[in-house]
Protein 1
Amino acid sequence: MRILAIIAKWLFILCLPVLLLSASIGWAANSLWLYKYGVQEYDVSQTLSDYGLELSDSELEGIYAGLISYFNSDEEYISLTVVKDGKPVNLFTPEEVIHFRDVKGLIWLDYRILLGTLVYTLGYAGVSLLWRRRRYWRQLAWGVVAGSSITLVVMLGLGLLDTLVGFHQLFYQFHLLFFSNEFWSAEGYMLLLFPEDFFSVAAIFCAGITAGLAIVLGGVSGVYLKRKRQTV
């Protein structure tokens, strides 16, 4: 029984970084604000205009909102049209459509990981809190501090890796690892809508959210432990 308790505790600790990271990725994938920031920061409308596609900021916002809706739908393939030269045309090439299907698969994998780790961590926390023994409360707080610390170490390690290797190389290796085709480099409007620098910002966004959540959870739990020591 003691061995099972130790395993459950360490599983909780290791689930916490995965939970926080998957939550931040899901947040980024559904953040219309982040997409709109990319439009303004990288002048996407002007880039599209240079390639013969005139779109207003509101039309661009509609495209990104449509992508978010697609990512959360049961549709296998995305279908978005725009008006070019007075005629409606498909926004994405067949290769880009397939790539978005693959991206959607990764987003749903993230959702499943988020759900699984959330259920476990909440279940473990619920059992610890309902046990009504002070030492289990302290054990839970210690687990949150440990999990939050691991999260911050992982974020720091990823930041160091980005500094040493470079985001471009990491981004390239990511695509080789997670995609079975090279449609992510298809020539069309997709790469104009999502310049590589945008993903660098998105990665910083995810890292910041993950680290921020870890600091809050770890800080609250650390304060709790410190107060309990003072009252003992």
Protein 2
Amino acid sequence: MNSKQALVSVLCMVFLVFGCTVPKGTNITNVQDYDQYLNSPENKTLERTKRNEQFWTKKLEQTPNQFPYLRKLAAIYTDYFSATGKIHYLKKAEEQLLKVNEKTNYENPSYLKALAHNYITQHRFKEALQLLGKAEQLGEKLQETRKMLFDVYLELGNYEQAHAYLKTFENFSDFDYLIRLSKWSDHKGQLDAAITYMEKAVLIAESSNLDNLKQWSYTNIADFYGHAGDIEKSYRHYLKALALDPNDPYAKKGIAWIVYSHEKNPVEALRILNKVTETYHAPDYYLLKAEVADYLNFEAIHEQALNSYRTEMTDSAYGDMYNKYNVLLFADENKNLNDAIAIAKREVDNRPTPQSYDLLAWAYFKNGNLGAALEIVDTHIVNQTYEPETLYHIAEIYKAAGKTKQIQPLKKELLASIYELGPTMVEKINQL
């Protein structure tokens, strides 16, 4: 029996054990809704991207002096990355964008912003900021540049500057402004406002009838609905995204999370994720598979998924993109804790946000340095972020420090965020 057959056999066996454990009336998903997208034999997006690559590669070969074609190829490689999750496509896009910027002496704002966008995806935010600063000085399409500057300053934790840029393009009829105002509201812990603004953005996207805009809007509003506990709306919008692109891996991942975290059906969630990772290879999807397998207490699948993640991490092309995941993995496994601290320090240097400081505090805590962890929590994290995962880390650190009064309000918030945190966290939170 090969490994794939063994996995199927195991899942069938586990289904018999766990398949009927979902309380009646809690299911909102229906396999018939999404199965057609899991079993789609063709990927039209990927096929279209391949055709575009052949067309523009040939054009560039015929007229190598036409450097705008490099920008076209960069966009195509970015599409490849979005469709497959393979990092080398993102790096190939970077190569083309570097070439076209070199040919224009880094004086074309459009090309500068395209390279900045690539760097944002790679979590190279400081480099992106330099490019956007130059684009801002050049002045062309300034509003577009300012929108990207808001994005980068928010990622860098420079919230005052981010807010200042947000005000420069205020327009409640503009899709780009609304999605950024929604993001800002979420950062401030104002989830209801974030949803309201995103809903307005969805309406604009639908009226524009641009599929890529609608698809992005649907997955993002689905995330917000999930955070707010409106799981049915979340599910319906992931389905809307899949109706536009049957191969959207993020929407499938969202449905897998609903099946796993809300419906407590880990076998079906694992089936969905196995289907997704046949063609999409972003490393964090393997970590989610490992989490679901851990909930099932199935060590073989858990370790197999972690090994897939570790294999991906041997590729230096990922750079700092997975710093967060690496720190948390090392900390949870109580392994390579000095490496975890070093990576967390690098992440704080890259983007000194409360979430980055949380990684450093958690790494110190797991390494036995409670004093350093507590100082970071009190100085850089408390009341500066509302992320459930960070709040859990704060609660554990406070518990170890004997600060029991501060734990109870955190515990209340965490219990209200079980859907976001996942079922493996229930017991840990109850023990706070």
Protein 3
Amino acid sequence: MYEEKEYNFNWVSLFIKVVIFVIFILLAVWLISRITFKDNDENDKSFSDNLQMMKNVALEYFDGDNLPENDGDKVKLTLRQMIDMGLVSEFSSDGESCDTEDSYAEAEKTDDYYTIKVNLKCGDMEDYIYTTLGTDECSDCDNIIGNIDTDDDSDKDNDKDKVTSNDDKVDSSKNDNKTSNSSSNSSSTSTNSSSNNSNNDGKKIYYEYAKLVTGTKNVSYATYCKIENKDYYTISYVGTNFSKSFNYTLRLMNLPSNISNVSISSSNGLKTYSDFSKAYNRNKSDLQMVNSTGLGNSPTLGGSISNFQKYSLKATDNGGSNFSYSLSAPYKSGYYYYVKVNMNIYNTNGVSAFYDSNLRRSIYYVPVHFRVKYTNRSNCYDTSTNEVRSGYSFIGTKTKKETYTYADTNQIKWSTSTSLDGYKATGNSEWR
């Protein structure tokens, strides 16, 4: 006999546990977000403080004679120039070094006032500020010439300064508040800038320039020309009552007109079907026999590639024993190159005779392939370096007169402009 027991589920206890778990999750999320946002806020503040510092330095630099003179003119002051002049020290944001060339301040004259753009780029972050500068008569200007106070920006700066960013937007109110960098680099910058300006009150920065001059010089060039090859197939024949030895001369046709270093790079008798196919389909106008003593090319060549192969003597250099040959080095006479051929016929073993109806007699073909190598002097290039292209041959050297531009340090000019047409900056500067 079993006793029935009652089990009561405690809903109140479960509800309390769920509430505690949810509160714990929300608290963890809040703590993580606070840490993350704090890091981002600190990075943004460091970047914003450096941008504001560059703005203050730019307003001091452009507060007077360093401003452009005519409408539309611009004067640029890079971060590198600020550092070289001792106006600021090098600084970084979020561990990223700031670009000293793409970070700059630029003043542009428009009517009766000046627009100052200050751009700062550090790694992936890039922001800029616009502010205006003018005389007392400019009611819409953010700053008055001769009355720049970088330690006390007015409320008007909060409305006029425009700041954009490629990553996080920089709060414009931060840019117009009193500059106070959290990093040691920024603190050092403020000290250097303040000290430098106090030592050069009433002075302007001058830059040294050397005049750009055009001169001439002799440059040595090496000439290289293309090495090329051309294949020739000479096909003589002998009758059944052949002579054991005979000679003939070939005129090499269809070569480029301006060539040198002509030689025979290889030669062989025909062995494979592919060899005979190339000879059968050769360009007949490539060769001319100039003293064949009755020898000449039969126009039919047996009527097919297979027949041509069957009716041809085999040269000893390809495993046969029917004939051997020798070729002279190519030589030039008049407008053409020539090659002399010497043939020695041993036998006709294994070769069938072909009755040529044009010649009206039976013959044996005696084919030879050779390759002519030459330098094509119409396909050349000149180089003043050690550039040597594959497949080209050195021909010689030559000298050319060339013009070039250089900075003449004997013709020096000093200017308050950050660039000067016709001159190159030497890197020297001084306060005057």
Protein 4
Amino acid sequence: MTSKVYPDAAASLEGLLFQGMTIMAGGFGLCGVPENLILALRNSGVMDLTVIGNNVGCDNHGMWHVLTNGQIKKVLASYVGENKVLEQLYMNGGIEIEFNPQGTLAERIRAGGAGIPAFYTRTGYGTAVAEGKETRQFQGEWHVMETGLTADLSLVKAWKGDTEGNLVYRKTARNFNPMIATAGNVTVAEVEELVQPGELEPDQIHTPGIFVQRIFKGTQYVKYIERLTTRPRQAAAAGEAH
């Protein structure tokens, strides 16, 4: 049986990339971002990408590196804040963005991974999100038809994984990574800790290894804080006095 384990991000992407492909990438803000894979994607120089994910990174982090390298032509995302490069590209006509309500995007990815071609949702009806889409009434309420999403390649980040590709995510990293792992024709996972089969508690596995074709242990992870907010010390002290 061929091993799913690769030595690093660049090796794990070898033979998978081509111009004009569609890539899904996990992450929610700065949590659960496949950092090593994104840098390897940037270094590959592959062009005309369509990227699907909750966001496109923020300044100097995540998919921002691929964006600033001019490799992305279209984005399907929910949250596009904290990214000045994306803002300028969009305003100047340099990139196409398909905006999605966050829950709708998550369900479109989940549906694609489950083989569901389309579904109806009330979210977005009567707004710009529904323009050009089929609408239908159910039980007196109008709904918008949304299509499921799949990709040529899914890139995900997990806390732990075993050599068979079983994955365990940690906290906020579960927001998009699990469904993205199911929706790619090929899924590559990077993990903070790589263990042997049997070392993960079966009931704690979030993504079964059948969905993952390649896996490697990432390096140099830093837990960034997207926006640090603290109370002034005097206000904190006054609050404690009460």
